[in-house]
Request: fold
Amino acid sequence: MNKFKKAYTLIEMLMVVAIIGVLASSILIGLGSTRSKARDTRRLTDLKSTQTALELYYSKYGVYPSRTPGTNETWEWTELTDVLTSDETGLKLSKIPKDPLNNNEHKYMYATDGQSYVLGVKLETKDQALDDDLDGTILGMDCGDELGDEIYCISL
Reply:
């Protein structure tokens, strides 16, 4: 009777580790585009919630936040956030969303003339489903110039 136990060789073990490594890397690569699309979805949701905050401001003051009503102004997102969340506005908003990556490449944008506004963001991916946005220069803000561009803009 053979008293030797059957065992895996070193080569077999290395092959298993290599196969698991290839499978893991392919899954991580596949998740990269899913993550960027998820961040883009969050950006669009953030614009919609900011749109709601702007409408609350308008219903209270009769104008959208602007420095000089009647002139086109492009604001930094932090300026808009400061105005909408300040105690003086009385809106009782605790915070306005900011970009999930919090970098300058995909920053949120706001432009107004006091009676209308446009919100925009540069997305990470192009998606034909988002071609119903505004294009061109609106209130001094660049909203892209073609279908399928990466800049998504909405207005009231």
DSSP finds two helices and six strands in the chain.
